[in-house]
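Narrative of activities, Objective 1.

The group set out to show that a structural description can be obtained from nothing but a protein's sequence at a throughput compatible with the screening campaign. Below is one input-output pair from the validation batch, recorded exactly as produced.
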Amino acid sequence: MAKTQARSRQGDRQAKAQRAELVQLGTARQRLAAQQERPDPHLWARIVAQQQVAEAELAKSQQRKQRAEETYRAAFDTCERACCQQRTLLRELEDLKGKERVMYELEHAKDQVMTVLKLALANLVMWARDTYFPATYAHATWQRLVPFFRLPGQVVWGAETVEVELRPFNDRQLNRDLETVCAQVNAAQPRLPDRQRLQFQVRAHASVPKEPMGSRSQS
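Output recorded for this entry:
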């Protein structure tokens, strides 16, 4: 817009100078015409030619000035629209600021810990299935394996061994599978971190005690 204004002012100055020149040429022409004797034809022709040139230059200057003013008005309108949009945006931002709600950052650390623990448990169950369960459980899911891991029983802590006695199922097939799992564990002779050997067995129905004895503890 500044360049457009500068061109418009320059056009004004040129037009004023050309109008002043035309006035001077017109005055000179009138003086020649008012003389009693016949004016010099060469001087008259020169003045007329200069008037024509000045009029043509004035017309060009006016056209340039008009174009500059149109460009200036277009630029001003564009600027005004942009300012209007900016004011509207600022008002909308103020409205949103008045309606904004307090945002709270969620703490995902506990969820991540639980996810890791669940994944570790699932991996442990799948490892136990692949290592100790019969071949018929090769593709068993957690729903099928969970009864084995929820069996109640007793734990007896010895000097070198830790014996786990599991309460049997009320299903013969499940009890046969449980006995197979116990046999597989005992054959592998796994050891706890304190080097004690872990042993599993299925409690016989007739030997179920009414109360824990000695160093036995419910698990």
